[in-house]
Amino acid sequence: MLGGDERRVDSRTIYVGHRSCSTTEAFIPPKFCDNRIVSSKYTVWNFLPKNLFEQFRRIANFYFLIIFLVQVIVDTPTSPVTSGLPLFFVITVTAIKQGYEDWLRHKADNEVNKYQVKVLEDGRRIQKESEKIKVGDVVEVEEDETFPCDLILLQSSRDDDTCFVTTASLDGESNHKTHYTVPDIEKDLESLNATIECEQPQPDLYKFVGRMHIDKNDQEPAVRSLGPENLLLKGATLKNTQKIYGVAVYTGMETKMALNYQGKSQKRSAVEKSINAFLLVYLCILVSKALVCTTLKYVWQSKDGQDEPWYNEKTQREKDTNLYLKMFTDFLSFMVLFNFIIPVSMYVTVEMQKFLGSFFITWDKDFFDPEIQEGALVNTSDLNEELGQVEYVFTDKTGTLTQNNMEFIECCIDGFQYKYRDASSELDGFCVTDGPVSKLQQKAGREKEELFLRALCLCHTVQVKESTDQGQSQQDGLIDQVDGLEVDAGLFHPPQEQRGFIASSPDEVALVKGAMRYGFTFLGLESKTMKILNRNNDVEMYELLHVLNFDPVRRRMSVIVRSKSGDTLLFCKGADSSIFPRVRQEEVERIRMHVERNATEGYRTLCVAYKILSAEEYAQADAGLRDARLALQDREEKLMTVYNQVETGMSLIGATAVEDRLQEEAAETMEALQGAGIKVWVLTGDKMETAKSTCYACRLFQRNTELLELTVRTLEDGERSREVRLHELLLEYHKKAVQDAPPVKAGVNRSWSSAGQDYGFIIDGATLSMVLNNSPESNSSRYKNLFLQICQNCTSVLCCRMAPLQKAQIVKMVKNSKGSPITLSIGDGANDVSMILEAHVGIGIKGKEGRQAVRNSDYAVPKLKHLKKLLLAHGHLYYVRIAHLVQYFFTSVIWFSFSVCLQNLCFILPQFLYQFFCGYSQQPLYDAAYLTMYNICFTSMPILAYSLLEQHICIEVLLDNATLYREIAKNAVLRWGTFLYWTVLGVFHGLLFFFGVRFLFSNPALQDNGQVFGNWSYGTIVFTVLVFTVTLKLALDTRHWTWINHFVIWGSLAFYVFFSFFWGGIIWPFLRQQRLYFVFANMLSSVSAWLVIILLILLSLLPEILLVVFRKPRGPHARQKKMMSPILSFKQLSEDGLLQSSRLQL
Amino acid sequence: MMASSYNAKDEDGHITVTGPGGGTLRSKKPENTAFKQQRLPAWQPILTAGTVLPAFFIIGLIFIPIGIGLYVTSNNIKEFEVDYTGVDMSSPCFNCSQNFSWNSTTPCTCTIPFFLEQPYESNVFMYYGLSNFYQNHRRYVKSRDDSQLNGDMTSLKEPSKECEPYAYHDNKPIAPCGAIANSMFNDTLELFYNDPNGTKVQIPLTNIGIAWWTDKHVKFKNPGAGEANQNLTAVFQGTTKPLNWRRPVYELDAAANNNGFINEDFIVWMRTAALPTFRKLYRIIKSPSNGMMPTMPRGNYTLEVVYNYPVRSFEGRKRMILSTISWMGGKNPFLGIAYITVGSVCFFLGVVLLIIHHKCGNRNNSADISN
């Protein structure tokens, strides 16, 4: 046996078809979970308790539950209904929503679990429900079916022992992937006696290690290694293959799909944190108010005759209660009375606003991309407003800034440049343009050329698409378009040879296509034989021996093939940095020049090398590879070592340049982001030169930008160690960018763009890791600080040669830096997932590198250009809306004036003051119905409509003036200063309302028939003023009156009046006290009441109106700016010829 | 504090299972409706100095006259107040207030003379006022049973728990129950005009129309109301009077339409006051029908009080108020003053802002030009 035994626990043993392989061992069927997928959370039985438990785990709900319980248990002023009803409402709505969603999940689960599958059992095919599959069952799957569990492919109906699958529902990659059967399996699965040993379930979709022991009756058990290429994942779909047989290895919740969907970490927005902070303050106010009231109550009671005058005796029970207990319950009562200061309905409204608001993103037709027929996708609605707060954007380059639509531009063979111009005009498709001057019009030897082209044709993992649907693809071409990898070979070859290539990376296809232009066509891979049609239209055959897969750490891939003549050849292609050290140095210089020039032009360059393996060399490599592949433990590491051993001493044949075009409007988008005061960092795995040129093309670096480079290259000039040099450079740059920078950074640090020199910073992966994880000399944190400070003073930062994890590291570093800026990551590939998850807001681009980024993102858009509208328009509006919503709820505010609190502070303040006049008896000022309805009905609809529809600045203006984004930066609307301001104004309003009515009631004879008003009339007047002021304040704030706003604002006022009449118009049989009977109608019959209501509403709106006037001088100025900026941009435009054309098109 | 989200997130952690062959078909192009594209036609008012400044002036111009009108009206209302608590030794009611006992059978009366300097025209309203009486205390406010007062027979026999400790007495239900009813104001006030010729003329006082019409006719009902020849004594059989009352509820008034729960004095008392110092309407002095004579001419009057209601224990005060009424209710200069103040402030602000705006506007313009 091989060395896997030491950690048995980490692997599982599966008996294929439940047949024990060894007769000596007793067969104990191992216990595995069944194949039932349970994505639902609840069952009918546990729904209620479990859902309630989960809901009350939220602190806000719990708080209201406690208040409710206090009301039920303790004798409190307001009936439990007043807080119970809203809570009940919230809980019910949430429960219904979650219940419905769970029901949908149940339905989906059932669909999957009850799906009929065919299982081979004792030689017969048995129909079974999917959920009954057990580990070890041999399952038959037909074309276009999804795999019911994770299977090891045993047999395929295709001749070459492969099958094709798409993993569209797993990672969104719609291309076909090839999977292989376990080699050397007998055709008769019935007699197959094998065990599979594989690792325990783990979520990585692309990793699988295992091995299979095949017992043949009389021979030694054969051992075969199993890798991800043998594993068919649940959720993937079988394509292009009639049927396959596979043995179940992971079932149900242990499948990779199920393991993969486990939760993401929750992201919380800055606004939410503000809310919580404000709530905390209000909670303190609440407690202190209750404390003050309790104290005052007992002081007041200690006076003779106050506590229990003859007309108002206590019940026996009250008299008997312990004094301290009484004090405590009094305290609780006050808490309950004042608890409206913490608005339960705010949670509901905020949730609703976020949930409904996010629809506007999905509905936006500007985000619709006709190419992929998809619009934007919102994965979480919790971060809408965060889009308006972004300070740093981290963007991937490939596929994000650029289109990831590769086109072969030129190649360089043996130092000679070949630029493809127009194939059909040249006899042999070759055209030499601007090679080195001395060798102009020269070509490399034909032998070298052909070697190079063969290398291009062989060294890849491209598949040729089955030509069964040739006619169809000619007609609509849709399939090819979706894959984006169509090759119209008809141009160079007779038109009947329509050919499509499928590959995991578009570079490879571009290279194969490039080779095709020069006459070498890759025909396909059939049973380990690669066929190539060469220039002379001869078919060359190569036996594919090994593929040394590409990985981002090695940054290269190789194939080992055997030619017809028996030579074993290794072809390797990869990034220059990873190839150059592994080839003979004398070849490097000739090619390096080309590579560097191509890279500066923004092309992606790859170097191609080869090596002829001698028989011994090959045997050694072969053995090493096989060993490594069979290893159960540390297979990756072992493979890597072998790879590195094999890929040495090669000779360089040439280099290729592939162009990756910029995304549409990439430059405009970047410019807009910079204009909005957002710093853009490009994090890419690409080469520095390529990335730099992309940055120039995107106008992230301008011509006058001074670049500060901190790369391996700058570190290496000079004889000093890298460490010393790094330190030096950091200090130098720091001096340049931070210390010598004009001292604007304190307050107006966002206006750097206008002031003085722009700096761009470039760092590469190797240097970054030196900066971040420094040697034990422990000045790493110092480096890190210097680095951060430099970066913060640069307009753009380019980080190249980044590993995915480093991207996340950078995001994390910036995220945790001083001031904790809001970060946004945007990317399209699997390598961006880590930074998408790390940043505050993660945006996925529905690009060509699969769907992993989209799946892990918070928002997904089809193109980079959509980022502009997403941030500048949607983000800005959402932030303003939600901030306003919160303000309104805590206080109720006018947009420009950040004014006053009403909704709660004022609402509760008169209540507080009233205590002075009613002997601290916790008598509520308002009727319970009003208390309950206030937040739920009277005032919530207008603010919800407002928070969904408001556009204080219309979208076009927002898009045209990126600078407007800066005005809301750093949570500008929800700061402590403004918070204090509303709170103070709120106190003012409370006092105003209370004392206004108080003085009116110094003579309660307010009707013209001499009759008097009581306490309920008093409360109703204050309440009416409140409802009207709150709603009218919102009306004053509203800058964008659609019919919905009109309807809701005037409607809710009408509803209030209607409700008051209705509530007071009937003797309600279920009420114990008819407190409001005709109170409202009587109030309206009093002229004085009308007059005081009008006066108070006007007085409380006065500060708002005043502020509008005081702000007035800014008005024309702002508009002036808006008028100016198009002119400014026009000036820039005329300066810059490049931009001109694109602008004029607009 | 706030757990971040209700729902959206809970789902993220869960498997969205696509059915067999599940391809996602989300490729619907968003509808191009005004609502979905956030392009609803909208009115976008901009508050500018141009619109706000006139508003200030208009508010000023409207409010100041209203305020003056209110102030004048309030000033024209005549009001006279007598404190008859009897705190001072000199006060006629001093004795009554000192020798107070709930059980005394002989009523204590006192007489207070007063002089009206001005004649009171049209209807004159007579109020009693109490001070430091917390009718708005929570325990007090809720101590009533509205369904009993609405004539509900079961509530009559079984008063609500809220009435405790004034729900039962001697195992008999109290009707009307509760602290409010129990503490009903029971002083009797009578007014006499001392004619210059020496005769003492009793002024007729009406006790009809002092309570809200809806209270009297809908909210308060005697039990068994609507039955033919209703006998209140029989209906209230089995109940007992509130502890502090001298007469049972069915003997409150001789007139059948003002007896029992629909007694207007009772209804007025049951409408609890908002503030600890309050007044309640007691009687109305109707103006003579010929209209030539003032309702109460200038001269000497006597207030005769049957002193039943103790307030000294909680340092309260009792007052008798005579007042005329205008369209704005009783005398209250507050509204007039407030309107005048707010109106003038608005006007003043308008002027100030106009000046500021004018200056700023000029400066701005010049700045713009220099740009």
UniProtKB/TrEMBL annotation, chain A:
<keyword id="KW-0479">Metal-binding</keyword>
<dbReference type="GO" id="GO:0005524">
    <property type="term" value="F:ATP binding"/>
</dbReference>
<feature type="binding site">
    <location>
        <position position="604"/>
    </location>
    <ligand>
        <name>ATP</name>
    </ligand>
</feature>
<feature type="transmembrane region" description="Helical">
    <location>
        <begin position="979"/>
        <end position="1001"/>
    </location>
</feature>
<dbReference type="InterPro" id="IPR032631">
    <property type="entry name" value="P-type_ATPase_N"/>
</dbReference>
<dbReference type="Pfam" id="PF13246">
    <property type="entry name" value="Cation_ATPase"/>
</dbReference>
<dbReference type="InterPro" id="IPR059000">
    <property type="entry name" value="ATPase_P-type_domA"/>
</dbReference>
<feature type="binding site">
    <location>
        <position position="684"/>
    </location>
    <ligand>
        <name>ATP</name>
    </ligand>
</feature>
<protein>
    <recommendedName>
        <fullName>Phospholipid-transporting ATPase</fullName>
        <ecNumber>7.6.2.1</ecNumber>
    </recommendedName>
</protein>
<dbReference type="GO" id="GO:0055037">
    <property type="term" value="C:recycling endosome"/>
</dbReference>
<feature type="binding site">
    <location>
        <position position="397"/>
    </location>
    <ligand>
        <name>ATP</name>
    </ligand>
</feature>
<keyword id="KW-1133">Transmembrane helix</keyword>
<feature type="binding site">
    <location>
        <position position="832"/>
    </location>
    <ligand>
        <name>Mg(2+)</name>
    </ligand>
</feature>
<keyword id="KW-1278">Translocase</keyword>
<feature type="domain" description="P-type ATPase N-terminal">
    <location>
        <begin position="30"/>
        <end position="83"/>
    </location>
</feature>
<keyword id="KW-0472">Membrane</keyword>
<comment type="similarity">
    <text>Belongs to the cation transport ATPase (P-type) (TC 3.A.3) family. Type IV subfamily.</text>
</comment>
<keyword id="KW-0067">ATP-binding</keyword>
<dbReference type="InterPro" id="IPR032630">
    <property type="entry name" value="P_typ_ATPase_c"/>
</dbReference>
<dbReference type="GO" id="GO:0005769">
    <property type="term" value="C:early endosome"/>
</dbReference>
<dbReference type="GO" id="GO:0016887">
    <property type="term" value="F:ATP hydrolysis activity"/>
</dbReference>
<dbReference type="InterPro" id="IPR018303">
    <property type="entry name" value="ATPase_P-typ_P_site"/>
</dbReference>
TrEMBL record, chain B:
<keyword id="KW-1133">Transmembrane helix</keyword>
<dbReference type="InterPro" id="IPR005045">
    <property type="entry name" value="CDC50/LEM3_fam"/>
</dbReference>
<dbReference type="GO" id="GO:0016324">
    <property type="term" value="C:apical plasma membrane"/>
</dbReference>
<keyword id="KW-0813">Transport</keyword>
<keyword id="KW-1003">Cell membrane</keyword>
<keyword id="KW-0472">Membrane</keyword>
<comment type="similarity">
    <text>Belongs to the CDC50/LEM3 family.</text>
</comment>
<keyword id="KW-0968">Cytoplasmic vesicle</keyword>
<dbReference type="GO" id="GO:0045332">
    <property type="term" value="P:phospholipid translocation"/>
</dbReference>
<dbReference type="GO" id="GO:0005794">
    <property type="term" value="C:Golgi apparatus"/>
</dbReference>
<keyword id="KW-0333">Golgi apparatus</keyword>
<dbReference type="Pfam" id="PF03381">
    <property type="entry name" value="CDC50"/>
</dbReference>
<keyword id="KW-1015">Disulfide bond</keyword>
<keyword id="KW-0325">Glycoprotein</keyword>
<protein>
    <recommendedName>
        <fullName>Cell cycle control protein</fullName>
    </recommendedName>
</protein>
<keyword id="KW-0812">Transmembrane</keyword>
<dbReference type="GO" id="GO:0005783">
    <property type="term" value="C:endoplasmic reticulum"/>
</dbReference>
<keyword id="KW-0445">Lipid transport</keyword>
<dbReference type="GO" id="GO:0030658">
    <property type="term" value="C:transport vesicle membrane"/>
</dbReference>
